[in-house]
Amino acid sequence: MSIYIIRRLLLLIPVLLGVAIIVFGMVRMLPGDPAVALAGVHATPEYVEHVRNEMGLDQPLTVQFGYFMRDVMRGDLGRSTRTRQPVMVEILPRFINTLQLTAVALFIATIGGITAGVISATKPYSIYDQVSMFLSLFGVSAPVFWLGLILMLIFSVQLGWLPSSGTGTPWHFVLPGVTLAAQSTALVARMTRSSMLEVLGKDYIVTARSKGLKERAINIKHALRNALIPIVTILGLRFGILLGGAVLTETVFSWPGVGRLMVDSILARDYPVVQGSVLLLALLFVLINLFVDILYAFLDPQIQYE
After folding, report:
1. Is 206 domain-assigned?
2. Which of 109, 132, 247, 300 could form an S-S bond across to 120 if both were Cys, CB 3.0 to 4.6 Å?
3. Which long-range contacts (CB under 8 A, 24 or more apart) does 120-127 make?
4. Within-domain flag for 9
5. Phi, psi for 86 (deg, rounded to 5)
6. What is the CATH number of the domain that holds 289?
7. H runs (alpha helix) in 123-211
8. Residue 86: beta bridge partners?
């Protein structure tokens, strides 16, 4: 196991290098001149050229990338061209907000999805199963921005139960958390149902029933545990997707997260912040997938890493 973990950690180097190359190239393909955006549209050509030289944009792309990678290896993601603050100072508070929102959404998706899937699998084709699958289909199909606006209209505007935007209290997490978790909850529910139905047809489940074990013990202790591997895979992937895909939710609910920061930075041509945000998200996504792979061994002792 330790050799496998070391090997996976070493693979982080080429993965992050590839991400760095892609994001470095893509942000420089954006239309517009970041020097003009920073200097202002009414700035003189001489001042724009001075800003371009100060930002290092007058250097060849290979030289710019070399400087960028040199700074990254030192743990320095550069400075924001808008605020002149270190990129980590800009990103860290926003990243924490996004991480908290993602954790809430994943918790909702895990509890709601597994519960709905288990009920559907243990009572197939019943009214519970039909309602659960209908809600799952709705969750997958409903656009995030539309669902967010509908929830805001009902629970904030009409009923006045929950705040519609901002942060500060646990109640601020409810609407954006539910909105962000809707699609993931639906996918987890469908995967849980499918995996549970497959496991419930195994011979050892029949043997457990013949021994007189209670149905709840069979469903939870035997069936659900053996059905968890594909569910854990989905949850691991969804965590990364939620973390990087919270832009619409953060925009609808004015949530000060890294998604909104990236959008604002792209519009302002703030290359260092965009690059730093993407690298940080990519690093966390890879580490989450490593954690999921390690978790497999605890869920199924038959899995061996060589």
Report:
1. yes
2. 132
3. 120/189, 120/192, 120/193, 121/192, 121/193, 121/196, 121/197, 121/200, 121/223, 122/196, 122/200, 122/215, 122/219, 124/197
4. no
5. -55, 145
6. 1.10.3720.10
7. 127-141, 144-152, 174-200, 203-210
8. 79
The model carries a pTM of 0.75
The domain of 259 spans: 87-299
Q: What is the DSSP string of 2-55?
A: HHHHHHHHHHHHHHHHHHHHHHHHHHTTSSS-HHHHHH-TTS-HHHHHHHHHHH
Residue 101: inside a domain: yes
DSSP 229-268: HHHHHHHHHHHHHHHHS-HHHHHHTT--SHHHHHHHHHHT
pLDDT by residue (tens digit) across 13-70?
Answer: 787 788 788 877 877 777 666 777 666 667 777 777 777 777 777 777 788 788 778 8
pLDDT tens digits, 79-129: 777 777 888 888 888 888 888 888 888 898 888 888 888 888 878 778 887
Query: What's the token pair of residue 244?
Result: 């990087």
- In-domain check, residue 58: no
Coil vs helix vs strand at 288: helix
Domain count for the chain: 1
pLDDT value of residue 272: 81
pLDDT digits (tens, 9 = 90+) for 155-175: 888 888 888 777 778 888 888
